[in-house]
Amino acid sequence: MPTASSQDSAPITHTPGRRTGTGSANIQAPRKTNPLVPILGFRTVSLLAIIGMTGRIPPSSHAKNSNPPRTLEDLRKNADRPIVVFPECTTSNGRGLLRFAKVFHQEVPVKKHQVFVIGFERRYDPPTTMTPTPSLSIPSPSINPLPHLFSLASSLTLPAISIRLLAPSESPSSQLFIVSEIITDSSNDDQLTEVCAALVSQIGKMKRTGMGWEDKASFLEFYRGKRKQ
């Protein structure tokens, strides 16, 4: 748990998304986002605790009774199985890719271990009374996420989701990987995070919103404040 906080894909092209013209209809005002808050490390919790954190934001490192955070590299060295990382650090509405937190702190290509990039093609429609969205963007105030799971289980239509695995030859751990084909700024202090964000956006066919879990924290604070009024 961060502390602050299928199917094989076809060969990808490095120009994701639909190209648009330069008319006024395509001009969008820049969206103000919260500054990036560094992830200090990870701590060990139970499976039930992980499930209960669905939709929430990374807990503060000053939380009571919390174990000292550990680095991802430390966890990898002592792990006897694959480690799954969700760099968004929270959930969204399922219609865009959140900004990845800088959790890897590694250059590309990765040499010490293999990296498998998986993307979920999850462009969900807005929820309706009869068809809830699979994405849990706002956590339940109690016994989270059981109310959401119940709404999905009782839905008349099951949502479809596609899981895409990037070919190992195009993985950031492939020694033939060329960083400049994926990102333009090779001086990034966390190349692996930025490369993975670009690759997941491409294989999942999702737009990168530029907003991160820090913006989700502000939204939840505003939402809960309105609910108390």
Largest sheet: 3 strands, mixed
Order of helices and strands: EEEHHEHEHH
Arithmetic mean pLDDT: 83
Give the end-to-end Cα distance, rounded to a whole number of Å. 32 Å
Beta content: 5-15%
Structural class: alpha+beta
- What is the chains' assembly state? single chain
The global form is: globular
Rg value: 19 Å
Distinct helical segment count: 5
Count the strands?
5
Q: Unreliable stretches, pLDDT < 50, 5 or more residues?
A: 6-11, 13-29
Helix content: 10-25%
Give me the side-by-side strand order of the main sheet. Answer: 2-5-4
Characterization of this structure:
The chain is of the alpha+beta class. 22% of the residues lie in helices and 6% in strands. The strands form two sheets. The protein has a three-stranded mixed β-sheet, covered by helices on one side. Strands 1-3 form a two-stranded antiparallel sheet.
Can you summarize this structure?
By secondary structure, the chain is an alpha+beta fold. It is 22% helix and 6% strand.
List the helices and strands and how they pair.
Blueprint (H helix, E strand, L loop, with lengths): L1 E2 L3 E2 L32 E2 L4 H6 L19 H7 L39 E4 L24 H8 L8 E4 L25 H13 L9 H16 L1
Could you list some keywords that capture this structure?
229 residues; alpha+beta; 3-stranded mixed beta sheet; two-stranded antiparallel ribbon
